Amino acid sequence: MNETHTPLGLEHKFVALGTTETVEGGLRIEGYASYFGEADRGGDVVLRGAYAVSLAALAAKGGQVKMLWQHDPAQPIGVWDEVREDARGLRVKGRILADVARGREAAALIAAGAIDGLSIGYRTVKATKDDKGQRLLTELELWEVSLVTFPMLPSARVGAKGESPDAADLRELARVIDDARHLLARD
């Protein structure tokens, strides 16, 4: 399970990165940091509208969701130019900065296919449980979206700009990666 809790109540959820494009001074990336209605490996389901209050509060203060490397607050690697809810989930578009050493490393790893995950760092404000024992997240305070190695929602995978990967193939690839990760964890 790729969910962590910190002493401050910050939680992390992992999702795969979307498309990328090289731009002046860095790499433009986009994708979904979260999907609505889809249970993650931890049994949590983010519901539509869960980010609305948090995103509105950030906008009112002139703040922004941070782009971090592997959830490390000491390693910002770029900026999110757009973070918004749409019908599918939490859509993000941003730029990894080439002027930042870790940003250059992240861009190289993405280009090589070694990194393709996004993960959200948040605090749960409101949640309920359903009859399956899943936690239904209805309001979240979003703090950051990180580039990560292992996404929590493996059905979403990065595609090159203009590509449209087949969902069934992506789910199968995600299952294989997840199985390998569990085998390695046993050793």
Automatic annotation (TrEMBL):
Keyword Protease appears in the UniProt entry: yes
All copies of domain Prohead serine protease, residue ranges: 24-163
InterPro entries on file: Peptidase_S78_dom (IPR054613), Prohead_protease (IPR006433)
Pfam families reported for this sequence: Peptidase_S78 (PF04586)
Domain of life: Bacteria
Keywords: Hydrolase, Protease, Viral release from host cell
Protein name: Peptidase U35
Species in which this protein is naturally found: Sinisalibacter lacisalsi
